[in-house]
Design brief:
Rossmann fold; five-stranded parallel beta sheet; 5 strands
Length: 188
């Protein structure tokens, strides 16, 4: 969240296959980053997203695309990884005040850790993620302070960080709602 993303910078982009992550990949590509997409099959019910991520990675010319399986269903606690019904049409007031049942415990911690591992092996100083205001209003692991703290984890918990490399997490959509995210999509 500090160093700018510049042309030629290797970047690991978390790519779920949804609007936010696809826009984040387009944002990184539009800046000339060398994009390495990373999709995590965490046991989510919406399996169609993984195939969508493959299509998006191809369409946006990601240099590489990895799909890593980490089954978070074993942890439980979320409607996204269980048979619990996923709520529809939540009121904005509840999105701003409650942690929803679609919160997957520590999901973004796990996803960012995997992205960090890939970034370290690729000598990529940048990680790009599609977190946004609608997510961080209810998900504690989508907040700007969490992302800043994770940058510190990267500095302290990797060989590259200990040796002086700096990893930056870019969340270009962090302050945007869905309409703002759609307006962000680069025109090609």
């Amino acid at each position: 969240m500090s160093a700018p993303l510049t042309a030629g910078t290797p970047a690991v982009v978390l790519l779920s296959g949804g609007l936010d992550s696809a826009t984040a990949l387009a944002w990184a590509r539009d800046r000339g980053a060398e994009c390495h997409a990373l999709t995590v099959d965490y046991g989510q019910r919406h399996r169609v997203e993984i195939e969508a991520a493959r299509r998006v990675a191809r369409a946006l010319d990601a240099r590489t695309h990895r799909v890593i399986a980490v089954d978070l269903r074993a942890i439980g606690g979320s409607a996204l990884t269980s048979a619990t019904p996923v709520p529809r049409d939540r009121a904005p007031e509840t999105m701003a005040s409650d942690i929803p049942i679609t919160y997957v415990p520590a999901r973004n911690t796990v996803l960012l850790a995997l992205a960090l591992g890939a970034a370290e092996t690729l000598d990529a100083p940048a990680i790009v993620a599609g977190m946004n205001v609608l997510d961080y209003s209810g998900y504690p692991d989508c907040r700007p302070e969490f992302l800043s703290a994770f940058e510190e984890v990267a500095r302290l918990g990797t060989r590259a960080g200990v040796e002086g490399a700096r990893f930056t997490i870019h969340a270009p959509l962090i302050s945007l709602d869905k309409a703002g995210i759609i307006r962000t999509v680069p025109q090609t």
